[in-house]
Amino acid sequence: MDLEAYSAVHGDRWQELDRLARTRRTSGADADRLVAGYQEAATDLARIRGAAPRTATGDRLSLVVSRARLRFTGTPVDPLTALSAFFVRQLPAAMYRIRWTTLWVGAATAAIAVIVAVWITTTPGATATFGSPAALRQYATEDFQAYYSDHGLGAFSAQVWSNNAFIAARMVAFGITGLYVPVSIVQNAVSLGVSAAIMHSQGRLGDFFLYIAPHGQLELYSVFLAGGAGLMIAWSWVAPGARTRAQALAEDGRALITVAVGLVLTLLLSGLVEGVVTRQEWPWAVKIGIGTVALGAVLWYQWVLGGRAHRAGERGDVEEFERGATALTAG
């Protein structure tokens, strides 16, 4: 079956069905057309599924058919079921799709940070450009550690979380530009390299890693996830494959924007570790261990649970939420 030709022939009828299904108040004639259109579209969907079980055309038509069926049947959908489907299948599947891009973003960040730190450390006079000897000493011996203890626990955690979540959300949302994510990656990596070089110049490089390690593992990985999602959205625009660019951007954007929801939660967890754990007078092994467990939980969620959902055919978009919302508003 030529899906493009089939869609061109029947597409207007599907659009009309979708319009009727979205209409809150329908006349008797519209209701008749809704039922008739649903029956015809259901037949079309069966033919498409028979030719190719999983296609973008079939998935979109499936959503239209489901919305139309709910419009005249009013079948309720349990919100808890929709939430469960989102967090158990859709979100981990979306995160799983960007697993390799996430690792590439992480590798690029680490490489740039190391290059910057080594260059500053080995270039005579480079460290001095960032401040006077007294200012650098104060940064390394006082300011760096005081950052984690000068504010109240709750306020500090909230501030860290909101700031990082905003940065990550922008990386996903502006990924379409193709430039925002690389620029953000470079800026973040350079900041890490400069901080490491300054701490090294004062003999405090060990403190740099100790204070960052508890929360930094998950915080940085969350930023890598955001960068991976943004780059994948940009790539769908550059290389759409058999789809049109608008279609590829709409489909992949819908799927990967769900990653932003996951980032809110992962950054909340890293913010709690930074605000609660890092400042404690516990052994560093304990504090770093807590951060490692937090990162491990997110990695399991992305790679193991996400892999299962992906292999089961989950695409990681918000279709289930749309169906639930349609059911709750139909009537």
Set out the fold topology.
Layout: H1 3-22, H2 28-51, H3 56-73, H4 79-97, H5 99-122, H6 133-146, H7 153-173, H8 180-201, H9 205-238, H10 245-256, H11 258-277, H12 284-311, H13 319-329
Described by strand count, sense and barrel closure, the largest sheet is: none
Query: How much helicity do the residues have?
Result: over 70%
| Class per helix and strand makeup | mainly alpha
Radius of gyration equals 25 Å
How many individual helices? 13
pLDDT averaged residue by residue: 83
β-strand percent reads under 5%
Uncertain ranges: 318-331
SSE run = HHHHHHHHHHHHH
Q: What is the number of strand segments?
A: 0
What is the straight-line distance between the termini? 36 Å
- Principal-axis shape equals elongated
List the defining traits of the structure above.
elongated; 13 helices; disordered C terminus; 331 residues; single chain; mainly alpha; 0% strand
Summarize the structure in words.
- It is a single chain.
- This protein is mainly alpha-helical and 331 residues long.
- The protein contains 13 helices and no strands.
